[in-house]
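Lab notes, practical 5.
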Amino acid sequence: MSKEILSILNNEKLLLLRDNHFARMKKLHDKSYDSPAAFVQMGINGARPAVLGDNPKSKVEEALDELTRHTKLLEDKIVFRPLCVEFDIYGVHFPDKIFNAEVFQVDGSWQVKTLDSSIGSLQKPDLDNCPTWILARELAKEFVNANVKLPLFGTPTISSALNVAVNLYGQEILLSMMIDPAGTEHDLKIINDTLCEIHKWYITNVPADQLQPVVSWERTQPPGFGQLCGCTTQLVSPDMYKKFVAPLDEEILSLYPNGGMIHLCGSHTQHIPVWREMKNLHALQLNDAAAEDLEIYFKEMREDQIFYINTCPGMTTEKIMKITGGNRVVIVTPKVKPDAIKLQEYSGYK
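Output from the prediction step:
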């Protein structure tokens, strides 16, 4: 690692600017904010996707070198633009590959072929000898060894037990909840135990003030918060979610000192009663169709549960502010340059 990269990415002034943004965001959780809203634009991910055969040390050095070109972004006192290193490994199918599913690309997008084995027979993978996990682990080790304090490190998409089960079995896992609950519970537990082991490794081996879950540049949380993907919860009833899935999601979030967040992108409001009772769930990340249900979530979730909102045509910044008054919300602005005057007005930043 060059002395220039080390100097830039350990700059104390930049670290202070980054941590000031974290302090503003944490106040949302503590309900002690002096600014009614925090704003996060698309930060910068310096890492390119990683595949088996890549040299982890070279990949990390390449990512860090890229980030040195974007440090000016952190000087914006209104919009948080974090600098991140997050390696995409098989996209959302990273856990599926660990379970030895066939993962392949179609038109540049990762897809998965469902397993031929029957539900109830899933075995825990041998992580120590899994090439995909070895690659992910080595990338994280090289990042830590680089000894740079400024960039955040995002994990691959560790996902959630239900997401992975649907990828591995398709609709059959949903049917099995009714006709083979024991087999369903077995496989979901195997999946969740594996995901927990992966989370624990990152928690143990990556500095807490730099560790971020997936999409680190956009769903940036204060240190000590985890995240899981709740995309497929829209496919199950409240009763099925409460029985089979909620305890597993709670277990993953409980691994982190401050609990964490669930990402949603569809129609999920049927699960609000369960999410309201999950003690380790402190945030929901809403985009696409889920963002359009913000008003329902805002009214019905707990006062200590906040929302990360991706703006979209159906949920503009103006509409978000009308619904929330700037309370309990982190607004992720679009890639276009935001109106700084309006953001300053909304954020209450002086």
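Observations recorded by the TA: The mean pLDDT is 93. The radius of gyration is 20 Å.
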